[in-house]
Design goal:
This protein is α/β, with parallel strands linked by helices and 125 residues long. It has 2 domains: 1-31; 36-124, Cupredoxins -  blue copper proteins (Immunoglobulin-like, Sandwich), CATH 2.60.40.420. Helix content is 19%, strand content 38%. The protein has 1 helix and 8 strands, in the order αββββββββ. It has one helix spanning 3-26, and strands at 36-42, 45-47, 50-54, 58-63, 71-73, 96-100, 105-111, 114-124. The protein has a 4-stranded mixed β-sheet with strand order 2-1-4-6, with no helix packed on it. It is elongated.
Length: 125
C-alpha cells in the first residue's frame, strides 16, 4: 500500500475517533445539549407547564404534592403519542421520575391520575 493510501486511512480513522469521543463525552450525537430540567408536580398543577428544551435533554418530574402523580404523554389513557414518555406507574410524594427526550416535537402531556392537569414539552433540534 502506498503512503498516500495510509494517510487517507489514518485521516478517516481520526474522524471516526473524533465522532466516537464526542458521542461518549456528550452522551449522544455531537451537538446535543444534555441539560437537565425540572418540572415540579404541585397540588393542582405542573410548574412550569410549558417548557422548551433540546433533543437529548432530560426532564425530571418531582412530586411536591401530597398525593401520587403520574406524568405521561397524551392521549389519555393510552399515552400512545410518545409511549416511552410514561413512567408506567405513579410517582409517590417526595419522589421523582426522569425522561430523556430523544425526538423533536411538541409533546403534550397530562397527569394520568388527574387528566385535567396538562402541559407541553417543546423539544427542538
Amino acid at each position: 500500500m502506498k503512503r498516500k493510501d495510509w494517510n487517507i486511512i489514518a485521516g478517516a480513522l481520526g474522524v471516526i475517533l473524533l465522532i466516537a469521543a464526542g458521542w461518549m463525552v456528550l452522551g449522544g450525537p455531537l451537538g446535543r445539549s444534555g441539560k437537565t430540567w425540572t418540572v415540579s408536580m404541585e397540588p393542582g398543577k405542573f410548574v412550569p407547564d410549558t417548557l422548551t428544551i433540546q433533543v437529548g435533554d432530560r426532564v425530571t418530574f418531582v412530586n411536591r404534592d401530597t398525593e401520587p402523580r403520574w406524568p405521561a404523554s397524551n392521549l389519555h389513557p393510552t399515552h400512545g403519542i410518545y409511549p416511552e414518555f410514561d413512567p408506567q406507574e405513579s410517582v409517590p410524594p417526595g419522589s421523582s421520575w426522569s425522561f430523556v427526550f430523544d425526538r423533536a416535537g411538541g409533546w403534550k402531556f397530562h397527569d394520568h391520575l388527574i387528566p385535567g392537569l396538562r402541559g407541553i414539552i417543546q423539544v427542538v433540534q
